Amino acid sequence: xxxxxxxxxxxxxCGSGGAxxxxxxxxxxGPPRRVSVRGLPVFTLADHAGAARALLLAFxxxxxxxxxxxxxxxxxxxxxxxxxxxxxxxFVPAPSTRRAARRRGGSHVDAALRSAGVPRAPVLxxxxxxLDSVGLTAAxxxxxxxxxxxxxxxxxxxxxxxxxVVDDVVTTGxxxxxxxxxxxxxxxxxxxxxxxxxxxxxxxxx
Length: 206
What we know:
Elements: H1 2-6, H2 23-26, E1 33-35, E2 42-47, H3 50-61, H4 68-78, E3 89-93, H5 98-104, H6 108-116, E4 124-126, H7 138-145, E5 149-151, E6 162-170, H8 174-185, E7 193-198
Parallel strand pairs: 2-7, 3-6, 6-7
Antiparallel strand pairs: 1-2, 4-5
Helix pairs in contact: 4-6
Keywords: Glycosyltransferase, Transferase
GO molecular function: glycosyltransferase activity
Organism: Actinosynnema mirum (strain ATCC 29888 / DSM 43827 / JCM 3225 / NBRC 14064 / NCIMB 13271 / NRRL B-12336 / IMRU 3971 / 101)
């Protein structure tokens, strides 16, 4: 396209031209690692730092939806490595506030899942009154989400289906825990959650 010839894409991780996301920056995402969150196994692909953080923020907050394919490919590679039960699995994007979703042009996590080509179930929403979690403490995050994550009306996975909560970054685990609680209350099985990056401690390998 002409626009790409005039303004070639630049990797948000390092600024190099000619690639939406360069291989050297994508290498910062690895196989799933367990995160230290009580109450739900949470896995992440990278620490929320360096090139991985820059790529995720560009995708989430700076309109770089062209990164969906690269991030979706990371998900597709990671999913077979997760300790999931055999059989069908549905991937549920964690909800954003309505204001944030409008600003971003929709759910960025769902866009990555769509690109990954996996069974998606965007069935969760946030009730009015929920705040953006940036800057909140762990206790404030829990209080902010308590009772405000809702199951949307419309098509849902089959009764008893296995669902994995997917979010962009885990900071305290409050979002993943509340999403899992709502899904379990509706009769779904939630063995774990997955995020692109983690701002909290990951457990050592082995």
